[in-house]
Amino acid sequence: MKLGGHVTIRKGYLAAARETVKLGGKAFQYFPKNPRSLSLKSFDHRDTDNCARFCQEHGLVSIAHTPYMTNLSVEDPEMRQVMLRSILNDLDIAEACGSIGLVVHFGKYKGTDPLRGYQLMIDMLNKVLMSWEGKSLLLIENNAGHGVKMGIMLEELVQIRKLTDYPDKIGYCFDTCHAFASGLWTGHNWTAVVEKGLELGYFPDLKAIHLNDSVYPSGSFRDRHANVGKGYIGEKNMKELLHTPVLRDLPFILETPGSREYSLRDEMKYVYALAASN
Predict the structure, then answer these.
(1) Is 56 part of any domain?
(2) What's the CA gap between 181 and 233, in Å, rounded?
């Protein structure tokens, strides 16, 4: 199982990969730069090259994640240029680290016409990807539905990808807490979710899973992650997801709370055991 967590790059990209191995992981996620800023980052190519080499030698899979402020459906022309440059900067770093992709949340449009939000998102994706020639994919993540009910259905993700000029440069990242919070996954309909994904052709382009339980019930539209098996999704439902054949070869990334009493290492041991149980 390719399991890991979100790790810091405070000591560099190579250090993040090494930390993953120490924890017993086979996958990890990182912010390419300051997660609270869209400023461009000049990075040490020796560090990224060493990270990519280390991952290859140890069979590690990595994904990067855009800063919190990134919004594919932003309307202000000046801010759209800032977003464009920031995403391309993130893609450059992800590529240099050998990451399979860069996670970006489905767009959130704050205007009154949802169609306008989708149009802005498609235009942003086209502008980013027309300039991108690397192997790292842009991985669109499903939303929890907080504030704006965009990106909460698999149909939306599949259709947006199809409508872009560069679908081959786009994949998906499925967040379990977001799916639960949005009501896509109720905890009792996982078979139906998988069947819908198969029907839509979603799974061939799914490249990563964010494995998070939920502090709030399904349909709450509240995005707050809980440790696996310790939230409203629960152990039984998480186990069903972990045993899904179509997800077997994907990296599972934990974005869950940590503490002295229950560390990322502890949670990884728990998830490994849960995935291995009958």
Answers:
(1) no
(2) 10
In a domain, 58, yes or no: no
Burial label, 213 (beta-carbon count in 10 A; 0-12, 13-18, 19+):
buried
Task: Specify the DSSP class assigned to residue 160.
Answer: H
Answer yes or no: pTM beyond 0.85: yes
Q: How far apart are CA 140 and CA 170, in angstroms?
A: 7
State the residue range of the domain holding 74.
2-46+65-276
Whether 210 is in a domain gets the answer yes
Q: How many domains does the chain have?
A: 1
The domain spanning residue 93 has which CATH number? Answer: 3.20.20.150
224 neighbors 217 (Cβ within 8 angstroms): no
Cα 70 from Cα 84, distance rounded (Å): 9
Residue 223's region, left for phi above 0, alpha for psi from -120 to 50, else beta, is: beta
Question: What digits encode the pLDDT tens for the residues 170-207?
Answer: 999 999 999 999 999 999 999 999 999 999 999 999 99
